[in-house]
Amino acid sequence: MIFCFLSRTVQLASTSSLPGRRLCSARANKPVLTLFTKKPCPLCDEAKEVLEPYKRRFILQEVDITLPENSAWYNKYKYDIPVFHLNGKFLMKHQVDIQKFEDQLTKLEMHNDGKH
The pTM is what? Predict the structure, then answer.
């Protein structure tokens, strides 16, 4: 089994597509967890630590809301980071709700397994 873990900051101007989705064909069925963040963000760092045991089960994409092309995200989330979206849908903010995350991740994994 091949695992691909991607943790990088992406420039994201819209929600219609996330850059970097096709970087590894082996991860095609892995859920994408998007972290809306800025530097520095101690709460974001703490959230990533909490998610560390799950890192082989999802692709992490970080969106720096302070970049000019992400001004819409900045206006929406400037007081709420960290904010997480799972497969493009809002999941949680401020801190990791590990039960909610695990439930949603498992649902997506079961859905993806059913496709093959």
Answer: 0.75
